């Protein structure tokens, strides 16, 4: 009954199915492994942040030895001490930043390190509208003279960072993103390109901005996309197996019916259609509704 599986056409179909199933399983397993990697990265990032928050601050040069240095893998959230002087003439407000469920903005002031490059320092967060606060002059001024700031090291923000406004067109004195790329065009001196810090002990009414996890280290939408793709590939594998069995069963049943003479021949179907057409031509009234025949009869009589 199933000898047709040895025909070239069915051998090709079977080989393709045998290749498709392990491929789908492999892709699903790979997507699942990517999800596990992101989970492990999330746990590691949480552990590193908890450890960094309890460790004593280290000098800035320990994490960022020079303005061009990049944050090491375990440097996100690390507490550092940075000594320099605030450039109060180039203070910026970062609008659209929420804290504890309230809308507000960050206050960023460059800290000149040794009179050279500047380290971006978020001195704190304020509730309300940034433009209104700037007009009212309610933003606290930065301390003058030489200061030592303790803060948590943060990676530069990108367009994917939560709260970032990358559309541009903000009022003067406001920035949508905290990064060297956005600061280099508005500051007359070099900027630390590796990151910025958020002060841990801001002056009231400023509130401390919590340190954020490193990019791509959390259970974000990408992680759950990997999990969704895992399910899709496994479903595809099951669908291939299901369709192969269904096609084989339908082919086998069709061949069995044909062997028993249960399937009508195409010539018989054509003959039935031709005989039906001939009968309709022999009796033209058979195609005319009864009401139409009654109306047609007086016309023929006249």
Automatic annotation (TrEMBL):
Supply the Pfam families for this chain. Answer: SURF1
Tell me yes or no: is Transmembrane among this UniProt entry's keywords: yes
Basic and acidic residues bias (residue ranges): 284-295
* Chain positions covered by the region annotation Disordered: 259-302
Q: Where in the cell is it found?
A: Cell membrane; Membrane
UniProt keyword terms in alphabetical order = Cell membrane, Membrane, Transmembrane, Transmembrane helix
The cross-references to InterPro entries, in alphabetical order and at most eight, read: Surf1/Shy1 (IPR002994), Surf1/Surf4 (IPR045214)
Q: Where are the transmembrane segments?
A: 227-245
Q: What is its main location?
A: membrane
Q: Does the keyword Transmembrane helix apply?
A: yes
Q: In what way does this protein cross or attach to the membrane?
A: Multi-pass membrane protein
The entry's family comment says: Belongs to the SURF1 family.
PANTHER family attached to this UniProt entry: SURFEIT LOCUS PROTEIN, SURFEIT LOCUS PROTEIN 1
Protein name, please?
Answer: SURF1-like protein
């Amino acid at each position: 009954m199933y000898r047709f599986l040895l025909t070239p056409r069915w051998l090709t179909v079977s080989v393709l199915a045998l290749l498709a199933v392990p491929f789908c399983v492999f892709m699903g397993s790979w997507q699942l492994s990517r999800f596990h990697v992101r989970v492990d990265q999330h746990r590691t990032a949480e552990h590193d942040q908890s450890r960094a928050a309890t460790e004593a601050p280290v000098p800035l040069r320990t994490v960022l030895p020079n303005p061009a240095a990049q944050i090491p893998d375990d440097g996100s959230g690390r507490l550092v001490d940075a000594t320099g002087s605030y450039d109060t003439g180039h203070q910026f407000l970062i609008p659209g930043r929420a804290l504890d469920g309230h809308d507000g903005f960050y206050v960023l002031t460059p800290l000149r390190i040794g009179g050279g490059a500047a380290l971006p320092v978020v001195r704190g967060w304020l509730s309300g509208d940034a433009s209104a606060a700037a007009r009212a002059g309610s933003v606290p001024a930065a301390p003058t003279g030489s200061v030592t700031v303790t803060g948590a090291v943060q990676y530069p923000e990108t367009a994917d960072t939560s709260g970032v406004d990358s559309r541009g067109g903000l009022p003067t004195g406001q920035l949508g993103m905290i990064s060297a790329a956005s600061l280099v065009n508005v500051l007359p001196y070099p900027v630390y390109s590796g990151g910025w810090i958020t002060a841990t002990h801001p002056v009231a009414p400023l509130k401390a901005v919590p340190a954020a996890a490193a990019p791509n280290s959390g259970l974000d939408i990408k992680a759950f996309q990997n999990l969704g793709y895992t399910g899709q590939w496994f479903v595809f594998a099951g669908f291939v197996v299901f369709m192969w069995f269904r096609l084989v069963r339908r082919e086998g049943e069709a061949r069995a019916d044909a062997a028993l003479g249960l399937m009508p021949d195409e010539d018989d179907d054509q003959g039935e259609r031709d005989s039906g057409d001939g009968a309709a031509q022999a009796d033209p009234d058979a195609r005319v509704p009864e009401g139409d025949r009654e109306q047609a009869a007086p016309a023929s009589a006249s």
